[in-house]
Each structure stands twice: as C-alpha cells, then as structure tokens.
C-alpha cells in the first residue's frame, strides 16, 4: 500500500538544527498555543501553523516568517500544551536558526534588538542599559535616533531622577572582571554548536 | 539568630543605578528581619534574559549561565543560588535542568567553560527569591516582623509570566497562582481579584514592538483600576519597569489618564516591617506610590 507522506526533509533539518526541533512532530494541531499567545493577533502564522508548515516542507515560508519574532517568552503555550511541547523554545530556536541563515526578515525589530542585546552583554559580561537603549534608538540611523531619543526623553529623565538610569554608564559602567574569559566561553560554545549544526 | 545563607545572583537590572536598583534597596531590611543573608557571587555575568536567544542561540546561552553556576559552586559551596529577577532565575534554572537532562549538552558546556578555567559540576540549585521566602521562611514567619499593618490598602498582585511559567512556585496553579495575594494579605493589605494577574507585559517586545506591548500594559493597568486597586505589586523586574514606565506613553498616545503605581512585594514588606520610604526604595518610583509612602511616614 502506498500512502502520501510528508515532504519531511525540512522537518529533518529542523530536528537536527533547531533548539528542541525534534518535538515539532509531536504537535497534534489543537491550537491551544495559538489561542494562548498574548501576541496571537499579530502572528501571520501561529506556532500551530508553523509546525504544520515545517512538516509540509515549507522551508522558505517558515524561515522567512516574521511570526516567531512575536514571541514575548511568556511561556503560556508551554504550560498549556496538552502534549507538553516546549513551544517557546522551539520558537526561539526557529528564530535563531533563521537569523543565523540570514533568512529572517532584515528589518524585523525584535531580531535587531536581540542582536544588539547579545552584543552588549558579550562585550562586558553585563548589560549596559543606557548603551543598549541608545543603540536601539539609533539602529535606523542618526536622524531617527535623535527623533526616538527626543520622544523618550521624558521616560529617560524620569528614570535618571529616580536613580534607575545612570548617565555615567556611557563611560563603560558595570562590567565583569573576566571579560576575556566570558568572550572565550561564548566563542567556544558557538564554535561547538556551529559544528554540530553544520553552520560552521 | 543563625542566618540562612544563599549565593546571590543579582543580575544586571539590580545593580546600582540600573532599572531595578530600588528592588535591591528594598530587600536589605526585609532580609535582615527575616534572617536571610545573600552572598553575592563574585564576577557574575548576564543570563541572556528572554531576548538572548536571537543572536546567542542555545549553547552560548547555556554556557554563560553555567559560568554563574560554576562560580557559585566554587566560591559559595553548599549554598543555593538565589535571584530576585525572574529572567535570571528562569535562565539559570533552565540551564541546570537541561544540563542534567542531556549529558551531551553538559559535556559541551564544560568544554566551553574550560576556556576560562571553569567547570560546572551540577551541584547547585537555582532558586527565586520568592521561593526562598515561601519555602524556607514561610508565611507565618513573614508575618512576624510586621509592625505596621498596611490595612485598607487595595493591591492588585501582578504575578506576570516568568515567575509563574514555565516553572512557577511549587504547588501553585499557572492560571491563578495565589502566593502573591497571600503575601499581600500577610502584610495586612487587601488583594483585589482582577483578571490580568498573569498577563504578559510584553517582555522585551516593549522595546522592539512598543505598540503591541503597550496594548498588554494598558489592559493590565485598566483591569487593576476597574477592580479597585490603588497599587500594583509584582515580583518581576521587567513587569515592574514595563508596567510603570510606559503608562505615560500610553496616556500620550491614547489620551488615557493612567497613573497606577507599580512596586515590588519587597517594598511592601519593608514598609510593613517599619522601614522608611527610602529604605523601601520608594524614591525610585516614576509614579510615586503615595499611599504606601503614607504608611512608611506614619
């Protein structure tokens, strides 16, 4: 007897390369994740849809999707999933994989801040909130940066006044002593993971 | 009294001059009264928060968290690692669980840590400050130091996401956790019932997708108002920041008049334990918690 099968090469790719990707095939398409997501109305493809698209071999559409970048990491989908799929982790994994393959939408704002945030933390071992905020405001150029900064001026000054944003952070601010060690750990971890995932 | 000792992982937001620095202020007197001693982990680093996955991926994220755990094991042996920040806690606890579950990830992580002369043995437990209060101190003992009952104060206990999911406080429901309400009642205040107690504040998307996150924040604040709350109380640094800071932006865009103070549970407890407004970090609010300041100044 012959039966129609999924075009499963993309599923295999996801299983091998995406964080917790091996769990994708466990999805039973109930839609609880889609209904539980706080950003639900803004997903072009809900997690449920993405899982089916993966199984249907829609590589291009999945990896170029804006959808997984809508994840706020609230973990509602994880705790409610009847099959206990680690959906948040899979969304993070898909986003990261699409980002590393440079297939994720270039102007996706959460993709952009995710990179800024990680670069900020790897530099000194700790996040510099002031430098991170400024980098974020200025990510679309100087003119837009000035506009963004002006628009958020009230919030910024309020935080400075409340002692929760230190202008001195611009000079370097909080940092780890063993920055070199941290950078070496991160570089090595990435090297191992890239090798394992065929990204190297 | 013999103090309970913990390896403290403050996290980036709780440093001096950072967005959650008033939390750090507010836990001093609270911990003093409850016999808790926090010993800061030397040279701890950022956990990657909930947005680190985008660029960092899986193993680099696990490795930077394992660095903190390894440092705790090395410098503060036998002590549980405690964080006040849900993102720090979630990242460290997830790291512990994953590395224990997958031996290959443990080996790879240790290979990376070796670059800085470190090794994670897997002996340390990652816990949240609230877990310590509930499990190691208990509600009765939390009540003992109360000298000023916050009677009459109506509070919306806003648990949010990451202190509640995916791990949560043992024995609590993900949909309707009650521990924060109990903590509010422990200090004599009234915990109002409202429908947004575990709604996501938008997390890191408050930066990247402000309109979408502010829609979440608006629902949370409006629901607290609708149910008669005078104050929102949260255990989460990002919830506190997002829900307090962006009310003015929402007002600007939508002509609303939101001005709901958002404080930490530790600020309530410090005031109830006789601390001043300054000791409770209440000078660190963008929206002043005047009613709570009133109790502090009584």
Distance between the termini of chain B: 29 Å
Low-confidence stretches of chain A: none
User: What is the helix fraction of residues of chain B, given as a range?
Assistant: 40-55%
Number of strands of chain A: 0
Share of β-strand residues of chain B: 5-15%
Shape of chain B: globular
Strand order of the largest sheet of chain B: 2-1-3-4
The main pleated sheet of chain B reads as: 4 strands, parallel
> Structural class, judged by helices and strands of chain A?
mainly alpha
DSSP strand content of chain A: under 5%
Query: N-to-C SSE series of chain A?
Result: HHHHHHHHHHH
Explain what you see.
The complex is a heterodimer of chains A (200) and B (298). Chain A is mainly alpha-helical. Chain A is built from eleven helices and no strands. Chain A starts with 8 loop residues before the first helix and ends with a helix. Chain B is globular and about 55 Å long. Classes of the chains: A mainly alpha (200), B alpha/beta (298). The interface between A and B is large, with 65 and 67 residues. Chain A: GO terms for molecular function: iron-sulfur cluster binding; metal ion binding. Chain A: Pfam families: Fer4_8 (PF13183). Chain A: InterPro entries: 4Fe4S_Fe-S-bd, 4Fe4S_Fe_S_CS, HdrC_iron-sulfur_subunit, Helical_ferredxn. Chain A: This is 4Fe-4S dicluster domain-containing protein.
Helices and strands, with pairings:
The complex is a heterodimer of chains A (200) and B (298).
Chain A: H1 9-17, H2 32-36, H3 47-55, H4 59-63, H5 76-80, H6 87-100, H7 109-124, H8 129-137, H9 142-151, H10 153-161, H11 179-196
Helix pairs in contact in A: 7-8
Chain B: E1 4-8, H1 21-34, E2 36-40, H2 53-56, H3 59-75, E3 81-83, H4 86-101, H5 103-113, E4 126-128, H6 129-137, H7 139-143, E5 154-157, H8 179-186, E6 190-191, H9 205-208, H10 210-226, E7 231-234, H11 237-245, H12 247-254, E8 262-264, H13 265-272, H14 290-297
Parallel strand pairs in B: 1-2, 1-3, 3-4, 5-6, 5-7, 7-8
Helix pairs in contact in B: 1-13, 3-4, 3-5, 4-5
């Amino acid at each position: 007897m012959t039966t129609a099968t999924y075009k499963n090469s993309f599923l295999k790719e996801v299983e091998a390369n995406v964080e917790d990707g091996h769990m994708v095939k466990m999805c039973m398409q109930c839609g609880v994740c889609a209904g539980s997501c706080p950003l639900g109305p803004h997903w072009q493809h809900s997690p449920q849809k993405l899982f089916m698209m993966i199984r249907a071999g829609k590589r291009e559409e999945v990896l170029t999707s804006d959808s997984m970048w809508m994840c706020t990491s609230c973990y509602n989908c994880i705790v409610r999933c009847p099959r206990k799929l680690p959906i948040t982790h899979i969304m993070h994994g898909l986003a990261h994989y699409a980002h590393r393959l440079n297939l994720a939408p270039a102007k996706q704002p959460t993709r952009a801040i995710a990179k800024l945030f990680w670069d900020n933390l790897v530099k000194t071992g700790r996040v510099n909130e002031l430098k991170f905020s400024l980098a974020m405001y200025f990510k679309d150029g100087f003119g837009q940066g000035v506009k963004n900064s002006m628009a958020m001026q009230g919030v910024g000054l309020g935080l400075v006044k409340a002692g929760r944003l230190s202008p001195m952070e611009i000079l370097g601010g909080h940092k780890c002593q063993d920055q070199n060690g941290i950078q070496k750990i991160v570089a090595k971890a990435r090297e191992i993971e890239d090798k394992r995932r065929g990204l190297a | 009294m013999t103090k309970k000792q913990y390896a403290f992982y403050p996290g980036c937001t709780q440093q001096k001059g950072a967005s959650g620095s008033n939390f750090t202020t507010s836990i001093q007197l609270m911990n003093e009264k409850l016999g808790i001693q926090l010993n800061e982990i030397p040279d701890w680093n950022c956990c990657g928060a909930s947005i680190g996955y985008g660029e960092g991926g899986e193993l680099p994220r696990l490795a930077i968290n394992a660095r903190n755990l390894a440092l705790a094991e090395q410098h503060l042996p036998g002590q549980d690692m405690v964080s006040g920040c849900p993102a720090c806690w979630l990242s460290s606890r997830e790291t512990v669980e994953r590395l224990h579950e997958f031996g290959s990830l443990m080996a790879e992580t240790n290979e990376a840590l070796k670059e800085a002369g470190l090794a994670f043995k897997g002996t340390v437990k990652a816990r949240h400050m609230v877990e310590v209060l509930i499990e190691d101190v208990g509600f009765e003992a939390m009540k003992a130091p109360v000298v000023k009952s916050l009677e009459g104060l109506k509070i919306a206990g806003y648990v949010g996401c990451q202190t509640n999911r995916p791990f949560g406080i043992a024995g609590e429901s993900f949909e309707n956790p009650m521990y924060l309400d109990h903590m509010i009642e422990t200090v004599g205040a009234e915990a109002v019932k409202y429908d947004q107690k575990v709604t996501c504040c938008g997390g890191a998307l408050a930066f990247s997708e402000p309109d979408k996150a502010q829609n979440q924040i608006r629902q949370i604040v409006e629901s607290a108002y609708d149910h008669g709350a005078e104050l929102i109380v949260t255990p989460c640094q990002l919830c506190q920041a997002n829900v307090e800071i962006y009310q003015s932006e929402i007002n600007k865009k939508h002509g609303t008049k939101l001005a709901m103070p958002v404080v930490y549970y530790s600020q309530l407890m410090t005031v109830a334990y006789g601390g001043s407004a300054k000791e409770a970090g209440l000078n660190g609010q963008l929206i002043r918690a005047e009613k709570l300041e009133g109790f502090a100044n009584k």
